[in-house]
Amino acid sequence: MMHGRIRLLASALAAVLTPAIALSAFVLPTQAQAAAPAPVVSVDHAKCQVHAVLASKEGNAGIPKELKFLETQLKDDEFAAYKSFRLIEQKALKLDRGKKTDVSFTSGNRLGLRLIGGDDKRLDLHADLSSRSGTKSLLATDYSIEDAGVLMIRAGSYTHKDDTGRLFFAIQCVRSK
Amino acid sequence: MTTEPTHGDVTAQELHAYFDDELAADRAKAVSLALESDPHLRAEYDQLGGFRSTVAASFEANAEAVPAARFEQIWDEIDRAIERDERLQSEADRNASVWTRMWAAFKPVRVPVFAAAAAALVTVVVLRPGADETNKSPAMASVEEDSTSPAVVGPAPTEPKPTPLIADSKASPVPPSQPEPTVTPPMAPMPVPDENEAEIHGIKFGHGGGRIANTGTVTVLYVDDETEPTDSERSL
Description:
Helix content of chain B: 40-55%
Order of helices and strands of chain B: EEHHHHHHEEEEE
Oligomer: heterodimer
Structural class of chain A: alpha+beta
Distance between the termini of chain A: 67 Å
Number of helices of chain B: 6
Largest interface: A-B, 95 and 81 residues
Shape of chain B: rod-shaped
Number of strands of chain A: 8
Helix content of chain A: 10-25%
Strand content of chain A: over 45%
Distance between the termini of chain B: 127 Å
Structural class of chain B: alpha+beta
Largest sheet of chain B: 2 strands, antiparallel
């Protein structure tokens, strides 16, 4: 008799709890997800590469293959006066947030980069560029740009081997782990 | 029927055993002597014989009513039924798996056990921390994986203090903060995104000054030579 009552009670309990289990399994995670705040993006590291490009008004070499990734930018009106482009030097850097990293080029210019921060799409960076002698500052700027976006800095006149033109630094950074 | 002696030292049980010729020889001789000397015991013994004759006569009469062929048929039927039951039982024992036997053994407690399990599951589901609370520590941050924007997961460092763009353009334009230990080997060029517009938050040109050009495709900072330093905030 007692055993029969227990079985009856257990059956009723199971009948009530089974739908509750199924409902809880779907509703609770959904509510938790909806209530969760938007993820906070923190950009703590970035990889950068800097291309030193000599843009010349002489010749007709156009854009070399190693600079094809900049083709859209180098064909912009800002570079319409130049007919030849040459890659002088390429440097890659790793940036840690808040930590300045300097890199020197054979032209004598020294470029400093610092990762300030960023959001889910853009990076906040600081860049400063010295003169070729390294004694003067040509530029210091804080800027934000989309991941892998390129900021061009024209440093001045420069002669590389037989080519004379304007020296540009193309700064490209992307967040990293 | 009683085991107490009925007459002398002969009990009723011994009398029945004697009647069935199942007594030991010494007791059988004693009972035989008692029967000869005790008429009451003899009368009781004779009643046993009469009862047996009556029962036997009844059985024999019924048996004679059943034809011999039918009698054999009944026994054959009984034998086949016994053999069939034994065969089925042995097959069932052979085919039943461990789980089947366990399932059958637990049959009386199945419902209570499942009910308890369901209650425990509900408790776990209700009380467990939310799945999305992983990495919800204030010290943690996480973003979704993206091929072009790799996630950065880890303690959020403090926001670096803004520093003057150029502390003293005449004295030390670009103080070397580090030698170049973090310079890495050249890597493959990265595709430039379509939205390639840099937002200049602040800029200081040294010496000859400069200007900012932004076409939407490219942002160019032009540095002019040999002019006085100029300041520009959000020149765009």
